Amino acid sequence: MTLIVTGGSRGIGASTARLAAEHGWDVCLSYRSNENAAAEVVEDCRRHGTRAIAVRADVTITSDIVVLFDLAESELGPLRGLVNNAGIVGHRALVRDYESGRTERIFATNVLGAFRCAQEAVRRFAGSGVIVNVSSRAAALGSPGEYVDYAASKAAVDTMTIGLAREVAKDGIRVNAVRPGLIDTDIHASGGQPDRIIALADSVPMGRGGSGNEVAEAVVWLLSDKASYVTGTLLDVSGGR
Ligand code: NAP
Predict the structure, then answer these.
(1) What is the number of the ligand 1 atom nearest to the C-alpha of 9?
(2) Which among 8, 131, 139, 194 is least surrounded, fewest beta carbons within 10 Å?
(3) Ligand 1 centroid to 85 CA: how many Å?
(4) Is the Cβ–Cβ distance between 113 and 6 less than 8 Å?
(5) What domain range is 171 assigned to?
(6) Any idea what the CATH number is for the domain that residue 211 is in?
(7) What pLDDT is stored for residue 57 in this prediction?
């Protein structure tokens, strides 16, 4: 069973790749630039006795996506799963102050990248397959004063999840999303807020940020046959936030 995890070199994607391997998936993870981190995740996956490869593929480049899917199938076998995880945030800013090109970059990765990967997956799933999109609770919260554009990009992912799920349900394909809350990964530092989890922990009903593994558990369940009657669902993994 071949699974592609986009952005599998770090954070939630890396946790998902490792846990999916533990559950028997052969994993093809993609990354944008961090080759060493990707290689470490591949090694961890292989320790579970499954096959794993890493492919440098930028989800904003359509030809990279085609190469990613081609390599996954030629090296590991027919595709059965996709975790649309690669995503970026912008720096904390008011909408009126965004620098030029910022929103386009976020939408190119989070929306168009996810959309094209989903498209490529449903074209290749032969009779059965499963997609899990990594959205965000931001889609519902809107992220005012932080990154409204990021939140809006994840709302687009939610809508794509619902529409595509209903479109392909009779083709043996399930499509769901997880919506993580505050998860302890590098993404906050990349958005200029390395202490964001600590700063916002009190806003979480459970009083803490979550881990990549806690999100991965939900993703791997949605990938599995245990979730065989679940499609078009947005599963919040957010400590109640
Ligand atoms: P992260 O730690 O910053 O990791 C991002 C991953 O995505 C890396 O593997 C990175 O590759 C890859 N990536 C970024 N841009 C890419 C591109 N254009 N093409 C291919 N790969 C790309 O992020 P994370 O926190 O794990 O976030 C993963 C997903 O969860 C994102 O969609 C994010 O929006 C969502 N999410 C995160 C949180 C949170 O609190 N952390 C909350 C809600 C939703 P390199 O290693 O090569 O840079």
Answers:
(1) 9
(2) 194
(3) 6
(4) yes
(5) 2-237
(6) 3.40.50.720
(7) 98
